[in-house]
Amino acid sequence: MRSFIEGIPKAELHLHLEGTLEPDLKFQLAERNAVEMPYASEAEMRAAYDFDDLPSFLAMYYEGMSVLLTEDDFFDLAYTYFQKASSQNVVYAEVFFDPQAHTSRGIGFETVISGIHRAQLEAEATLGIRSQLIMCFLRDMSAESAMETLEAADGYREWIIGVGLDSDERDNPPIKFVDVFAAARQRGYRLTMHCDVDQANSTDHIWQCLNDIGVDRIDHGVNALDDPELVTEIRTRGLGLTVCPISNSYVTDGLKAAEIRRMLELELTVCVNSDDPAYFPGYMNENLQAVQEAADLSQPQMTQLVGNAFAASWLPDDEKTDYRNQVTAYAETHVR
Ligand code: ADE
Ligand code: ZN
Predict the structure, then answer these.
(1) Across all residues in the chain, what is the average pLDDT?
(2) Is 80 exceeded by the pLDDT of residue 336?
(3) What are the contacts of 312-318 at 24+ separation with CB within 8 A?
C-alpha cells in the first residue's frame, strides 16, 4: 500500500505556502536578509515547535515569516514546496497564501504575489506540476482589512482562482466576512473557508459557510459529522472537504482517521492534505499513509480519497476529467 500511495498521481488542495517554510530554508533566508533568529540551530527551532492547539501553532507560524522579505524569498518558498510535492507525485496543487501576514510587516502585495506566481510558472515548466493560487484573509483581522486586501488583488485577478479564510477561528465566525466574500464572488473568485476541527461553535460556523457565505468548498470541516442534516446538505451540494490529518493530530486530539473513513462511507467528497507540513511534519504521502494505517483503508478507498481531491478542485472540467482518468488508470494497473 505504501508504494501504491507514493506512486498514485495526487492533488493537494489545502496547503499554506507559509506553512512549508522548513527550518533549513528559514535559516538560509535569515542569513541572506540579515534577520536575527531567536534560535541558534535548526534543532533548537524544531524543539520550540511545541504547540498543542491552533493559537499556539499560529504564534510560531507568524513568527517564522519574519525572514520572508523579497520577491526572491517568496519564489524560493513556493518553488521549494513545488519540488517537494512533485517528488511525491503531486501533479496539481491549489495553494494558499496569507497576504496580510506580509503587508502588515510592510512587504508589498506585489512582492509577495510576483514571487509566488513566478515559482508557479517555473514549477510547471520544469517539474510539470500545475498549480492555482488561493488568497486567504486572516479572520483575526478586521473585515475592512480583508476588503482592502481584496481590492489590492484586483490588479492580479487572473493569477488568483479563489479566496479563503484562515487564522484564529475563536470569536471570528464566517459571518464577520459576509460582505467581503460577496464582493469576492462578484469578482468571480471561488470561495472556501477554514472550519477548523473541534473549535467553539464548529457546526454553527459550517452552517454559516453554507447559508450565509455560499462556499464552494470547506477546509477541514470534520465536525460536520456531528450534525446529520449538515452532512446531508454538504453531500447534496457536492462540496469538497479538505481534511489535514497530521495537522489535526498536532492541534486537536488525533488524526481524525476514523472520521475520514466515515466521511467516505457517507459519500462526502473528502480528501487528504498536508496543511502546514514544515510545522506538522508530513507532506501528502505521509498524510495518506498515516490515515491508511490508522483507519485500515482499502485500496479502492485510497483511490477514492485521491480522486476526490481532483473532483473537488477548481480545474476546468476537461482537465479534471483527464486527471481523474489518470488516477483510475493507475489504480487499475496497480491492483494488489
Ligand atoms: N493558517 C495556517 N494554517 C492554518 C490552519 N490549519 N488553520 C487556520 N489557520 C491557518
Ligand atoms: Zn489550513
Answers:
(1) 97
(2) no
(3) 312/13, 312/217, 312/239, 312/240, 312/241, 312/242, 312/269, 312/271, 313/11, 313/13, 313/92, 313/94, 313/240, 314/94, 314/132, 314/161, 314/162, 314/190, 314/216, 315/92, 315/132
Q: Of ligand 1's atoms, which has the minimum distance to the CA of residue 276?
A: 3
Distance of alpha carbon 21 from alpha carbon 12, whole angstroms:
17
**Cell numbers that stand for 69 in this block:** 522579505
What's the pTM? 0.98
Cβ of 196 less than 6 Å from ligand 1: yes
Residue 36 pLDDT class (50, 70, 90 cuts): very high
Q: Which among 16, 140, 223 is the best mutation to test ligand 1's pocket, defined by most ligand atoms within 8 Å of the CB?
A: 16
130 pLDDT more than 90: yes
Instruction: Fold for 2-68+92-107+134-332, please state it.
Output: TIM Barrel (3.20.20)
Domains of the chain, by residue range, sit at 2-68+92-107+134-332
